[in-house]
């Protein structure tokens, strides 16, 4: 293929993708977007937009309503369903966990909710400086782990009630065992955007965690970083939490979520 032809094809593809994105931004049954509006957004002539629209409509990636405005078509839905069907949470999260471990030099954990517990899916240790046997347990309690509290902080009230009803057993002297205190801690977690575990599940260990969401906005996992208390003093805890939130947001996006963990605020 001649170089000029290849460049033109590449430019057309990029414009077509930009067009799809513009229609996505205008999504909604009462909205849609016109050819003229697309031309303005893309900065190209209306006739060029019309040429780009035709194959996208043919392949049902876009649809044109009776007023001539464009919306995403059911072809996009089929692509999305195929993408979601091929997702494996552990596999998708693996590179994110490795990057997080390198960034924080802590032990990174991926868990998923399992009724009143969280189930460990993967662990990545940056270095053999901090090895915690509990981080390799198959199941961990929700009420005294950062990952568990991250999940509970965005869970329905009935879920929190169920965890409390099973009993808030003391694992260390710092474990929260009072229901009112746990509810208050979950409220603080929602406000600041990340969960903190301060020697509540294992002595001398501090960790932070953030929730991961799926395409319908349900919490499906949590990501955490744990290390020795001395390696995560209060002055560095927030920076570690921001790294965890960045990871949880990126993973949520890959899982098809429209939202990620909340923007951190001071408690």
Order of helices and strands: HHHEEHHEEEHHHEEEH
Distance between the termini: 60 Å
Spans of at least 5 consecutive residues whose pLDDT stays below 50 are: none
User: How much strand content do the residues show?
Assistant: 15-25%
Gross geometry: elongated
The overall average pLDDT, rounded, is 86
Assign the structural class, choosing from mainly alpha, mainly beta, alpha/beta, alpha+beta, or little secondary structure: alpha+beta
Report the helical percentage: 40-55%
State the strand order across the main sheet. Answer: 5-4-3-8-7-6
Largest sheet: 6 strands, antiparallel
Radius of gyration: 23 Å
Quantity of strands, as a count: 8
Number of contiguous helices:
9
Main traits of this protein?
about 270 residues, alpha+beta, six-stranded antiparallel sheet, two-stranded antiparallel ribbon, 9 helices, 8 strands
């Amino acid at each position: 293929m001649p170089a000029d032809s290849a460049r033109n094809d590449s430019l057309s593809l990029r414009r077509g993708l930009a067009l799809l994105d513009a229609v996505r931004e205008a999504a909604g049954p009462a909205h849609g977007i016109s050819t003229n509006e697309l031309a303005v957004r893309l900065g190209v002539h209306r006739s060029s937009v019309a040429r780009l629209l035709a194959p996208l409509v043919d392949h049902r990636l876009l649809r044109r309503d009776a007023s001539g405005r464009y919306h995403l078509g059911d072809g996009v839905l089929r692509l999305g369903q195929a993408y979601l069907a091929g997702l494996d949470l552990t596999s998708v999260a693996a590179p994110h966990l490795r990057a997080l471990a390198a960034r924080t030099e802590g032990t990174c954990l991926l868990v998923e909710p399992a009724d009143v517990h969280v189930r460990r899916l993967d662990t990545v240790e940056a270095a053999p400086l901090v090895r915690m046997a509990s981080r390799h347990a198959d199941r961990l309690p929700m009420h005294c782990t950062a990952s568990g509290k991250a999940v509970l902080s965005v869970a329905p009230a009935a879920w929190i009630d169920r965890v409390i009803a099973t009993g808030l057993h003391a694992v260390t002297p710092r474990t929260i065992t009072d229901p009112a205190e746990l509810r208050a801690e979950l409220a603080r977690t929602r406000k600041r955007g990340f969960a903190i575990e301060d020697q509540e599940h294992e002595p001398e260990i501090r960790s932070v965690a953030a929730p991961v969401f799926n395409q319908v906005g349900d919490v499906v996992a949590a990501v955490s970083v744990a290390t020795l208390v001395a390696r995560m003093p209060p002055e560095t805890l927030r920076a570690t939490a921001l790294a965890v939130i960045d990871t949880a947001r990126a993973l949520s996006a890959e899982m098809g979520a429209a939202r990620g963990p909340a923007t951190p605020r001071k408690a």
